[in-house]
Amino acid sequence: MNSDYGQPCNLGQPRRIHRQRLTLSPLPPSLPLSLPPPFQYVEDLVTGLIKLMNSDYGLPCNLGNPEEYTVKDFAFLVKELVTGSSSTIIHMPATKDDPAKRKPDITIAREVLDWQPRVPVREGLSKTVAYFRAELEETVSEEEGGREDLHT
Fold it and tell me: Given this structure, which CATH class describes domain 11-127?
């Protein structure tokens, strides 16, 4: 399981979801904070998929990111990058069958495809936060421009 992130994420989602992500309003957590899912910038995944599709390699190939962060580490990093957030981070207990380690082995991708993730998590998150901030500013401008001022 990869937790892919980046821009453009699903722009068909309601703008409310984007606002919650940018302000880090509490959202129902989907993973325990102690788990280390491999977070991967979507641009890296797409590059790996293109290399795999253009190769003659026909067996399974892991295109994950071996850089490990727990959900808690990732959440605090996002909160740090979204300046001014006062959102809380909600802890969920791990389930019995969740693996303690999820570091993918990308040896085949490196050796056969000459591929590995290029965007570090912090850099990818910074790009993603900037993207959502610009998207939300544009949306707010469009919403304000389309309404009559009710206070006059």
Answer: alpha beta
